[in-house]
Amino acid sequence: MPAVALLPFTITPSRKSSSPSAFRLTEKFVLLLVFSAFITLCFGAIFFLPDSSKLLSGVFFNSGVETDTSKTGTDRDANIFGADSVERKLAKIRKDHEKALNEAKDTLQKKPDEIKQDILSEKDKVAQENMVFKTNGGNAALPYLDFKRPPGVVGREPADPETRQKRDKVKEMMKFAWDSYKHYAWGSNELKPISKQGHSSNLFGNIYIMTLNFVFLINAEVSVFEVNIRFVGGLLSAFYLSGEEVFRKKAVELGEKLLPAFNTPTGVPWALLNIKSGIGRNWPWASGGSSILAEFGTLHLEFMHLSELSGKPVFAEKVMNIRKVLNRLDKPQGLYPNYLNPNSGQWGQHHVSVGGLGDSFYEYLLKAWLMSDKKDEEGKKMYYDSIQAIETHLIRKSSGGLTYIAEWKGGLLEHKMGHLTCFAGGMFALGADGAPDDKTGHQMELAAEIARTCHESYTRTNLKLGPEAFRFDGGVEAIATRQNEKYFILRPEVIETYMYMWRYTHDPKYRQWGWEALQALEQHCRVEGGYSGIRDVYASHPNLDDVQQSFFLAETLKYLYLLFSDDDLLPFEHWVFNTEAHPLPVIKKRTDK
């Protein structure tokens, strides 16, 4: 499969609108007038409203820490953290606004021939910069890198005709899903395949990829976690698969945009970041403004590669500091709670989950060790210690013989397992070989049992697709009992575990289970404009939610493709996958000087 087919995003096709020369001079002049008038109107409305400073600081630069007087002193202190800095940033924005308006006025006063000459000069400047970029082997700010593509970017065709036919079907699904997104929703985060239009959430702010150039809308607030795993991870993967320097450059630039999120008393990053102002905050619902384990614990792989490619140790230092904070804390029963206050450095609510809010933290501990060519002994110890605690306190077996991973809330178990938790079968298999005290066989058995339980959650529905969560109480096993847990949004975790189990066992049932899931997707989720999620997998007829999630392409279809591929495609001894399924190479120690 070509490298581009393994990525969740593709280089934007060249469009006429991307070239400055595509517009006539008069059109440019009119566009500049309209743009200047719009900017003046928007900022004028803000700055001449009563109490505009309060409005700006409250709307655009709210640090997100609540002022509830019932909080601890540390939490209250965080509320006034950086007040002077906010005022300085407001003054700077006013100054930048005035500068932009003056530049626009100066441009409008020029003659058309002068404007045209300025455009041509700017194009020459960009061309010269690109020539320097290529001559130096990349951005002058980045060290020269003698790129050597890691092994396994291209694998053999499966020898078995039936397997090859199934893999080709996955390719057809990927092409259909991608073409539908490109046709109906280009520039949006996701596709509404029934409405045939774009769908955007507020997770990323307004970040667009246009002819390989990121355009950061200056007041956009983004999820640090989501931008890291999707965009930084995707750019890093694109670089390692293609060798194109522009991907390395953009990955490092975007990583640098995320660094202000770590400006907290502990260095544990905020969940949300305004990428212009550098002001961060946490989700207001997250245990008194805490940071979330699965978010701040899922930066390690990408940031280690950023340091590797940029020669800048700051990225690695940021994520290694997170480990220092965690290692200083007592863990209840050896478990890691899902919430950590970035101001006080103390745990929030004692809620432990291997599913949502916790999942990828454990995944990244293991993969950090593997990605380091098994040199990261600290990551290895943290992973296996946490798995021992999980097995002791969270893993249970139902009366019907199904092994599941419950959730722990203040010492009490909730006998519920989420679809997100189903990734753990693949994680246990991936980590089995390095398990201490000859527990490799036990870890593989545990992985197989989790895979079976998650498969049962699919087969026990009418549509043969799994619910968001399923329970083991009240005489029920592997079935969702609450209406808000019966939906399916094209999630990848069960397919992910099938893929890992196939790679390690070559038991044909995993390919069969994956094919059954693929057929259900085709039968119930495919519509004219793409693939849609389902609101109730127990209904006789699917009620579609009209959203094609981006991770359906990045993960679900990619894992299906790998499931029906030979093991030499992205082999595990040379690659690890980040939590959005972007392949990143193992960092080998250089032997050359």
TrEMBL record:
It comes from Erpetoichthys calabaricus (Rope fish). It is a single-pass type II membrane protein. One of its GO terms (cellular component) is endoplasmic reticulum. This is alpha-1,2-Mannosidase. Residues 83-110 form a coiled coil. It catalyses: N(4)-(alpha-D-Man-(1->2)-alpha-D-Man-(1->2)-alpha-D-Man-(1->3)-[alpha-D-Man-(1->3)-[alpha-D-Man-(1->2)-alpha-D-Man-(1->6)]-alpha-D-Man-(1->6)]-beta-D-Man-(1->4)-beta-D-GlcNAc-(1->4)-beta-D-GlcNAc)-L-asparaginyl-[protein] (N-glucan mannose isomer 8A1,2,3B1,3) + 3 H2O = N(4)-(alpha-D-Man-(1->3)-[alpha-D-Man-(1->3)-[alpha-D-Man-(1->6)]-alpha-D-Man-(1->6)]-beta-D-Man-(1->4)-beta-D-GlcNAc-(1->4)-beta-D-GlcNAc)-L-asparaginyl-[protein] (N-glucan mannose isomer 5A1,2) + 3 beta-D-mannose; N(4)-(alpha-D-Man-(1->2)-alpha-D-Man-(1->2)-alpha-D-Man-(1->3)-[alpha-D-Man-(1->2)-alpha-D-Man-(1->3)-[alpha-D-Man-(1->2)-alpha-D-Man-(1->6)]-alpha-D-Man-(1->6)]-beta-D-Man-(1->4)-beta-D-GlcNAc-(1->4)-beta-D-GlcNAc)-L-asparaginyl-[protein] (N-glucan mannose isomer 9A1,2,3B1,2,3) + 4 H2O = N(4)-(alpha-D-Man-(1->3)-[alpha-D-Man-(1->3)-[alpha-D-Man-(1->6)]-alpha-D-Man-(1->6)]-beta-D-Man-(1->4)-beta-D-GlcNAc-(1->4)-beta-D-GlcNAc)-L-asparaginyl-[protein] (N-glucan mannose isomer 5A1,2) + 4 beta-D-mannose. Involved in the maturation of Asn-linked oligosaccharides. Progressively trim alpha-1,2-linked mannose residues from Man(9)GlcNAc(2) to produce Man(5)GlcNAc(2). Disulfide bonds join 422-454. The active site is at 226 (proton donor), 359, 468 (proton donor), 493. GO terms for molecular function: calcium ion binding; mannosyl-oligosaccharide 1,2-alpha-mannosidase activity. Pfam families: Glyco_hydro_47. Its EC number is 3.2.1.-. Pathway: Protein modification; protein glycosylation. Keywords: Calcium, Coiled coil, Disulfide bond, Glycosidase, Hydrolase, Membrane, Metal-binding, Signal-anchor, Transmembrane, Transmembrane helix.
